[in-house]
Amino acid sequence: MPQLDIQISVEDDAWPEEETLQALAERVIVAAAEHLSAMEQQPFPQQPIELSLVFTGDEAIREVNAEWRGQDKPTNVLSFPGFPLEPGGMPGPMLGDIIIAYETVEREAAELEKSSESHLTHLLVHGFLHLFGYDHMEIDEAERMEALETRILATLGLSDPYAGQDPIT
Asked: How far are the Cα atoms of 49, 61, 103, 119, 150 from residue 142, in angstroms, in the given order?
């Protein structure tokens, strides 16, 4: 079983209590890591790997998105790997950072007619997979990533978030 050290920072008071977010994040990230590990295509080091989760708001994520991606707008989740990693590559001791924006998560959950927790769970899995080099820039990459997300979410009791949609690009 992969060993993870999940560090959380809550920068926006709209988010639930840190303990609630920590419990959710641990459940979701451990499930995702176990699924990747069970695929036998994703090795994990013997020592714990560290992951940083930042729960912030739209304004803060907009600034990060503008600086690092050249897109001056809020987004739901951003992932920053500790170092470049291809799917199946061995992560180092610092896996990376995932940043999630409260207002965007809430708005999207309402639009999708899903609970905020279900949508947040999906975004945690999505961001975690990005840290392992999975992407959705090309159709084949998107199909691979979405299939993996769907399988991980099923282990958490959630339905396919992409049912009836074209692959994300």
From this structure: 26, 23, 25, 18, 12
Q: How confident is the model at residue 108 (pLDDT cuts 50, 70, 90)?
A: very high
* Residue whose C-alpha is closest to residue 54's, from 94, 22, 82: 22
Q: How many residues does the chain have?
A: 169
119 is in an annotated binding site: no
CA dist., res. 138 & res. 81, Å (int): 19
Region 25-40 average pLDDT: 91
| Amino acid in the structure at residue 109 | A
Is 130 labelled as part of a ligand binding site?
Answer: yes
At residue 98's C-alpha, the angle toward residues 96 and 104, to 5°, is 165
**Among 35, 120, 55, 49, CA closest to 81:** 49
Provide the whole-model pTM: 0.93
What token pair was written down for 155? 């282990």
Ligand-binding site membership of 35 (annotated): no
pLDDT at res. 165: 63
Domains (range + CATH), the chain: 4-155 (3.40.390.30)
DSSP 8-67: EEE--TTSPPHHHHHHHHHHHHHHHHHHHHHTTSS---SS-EEEEEEEE-HHHHHHHHHH
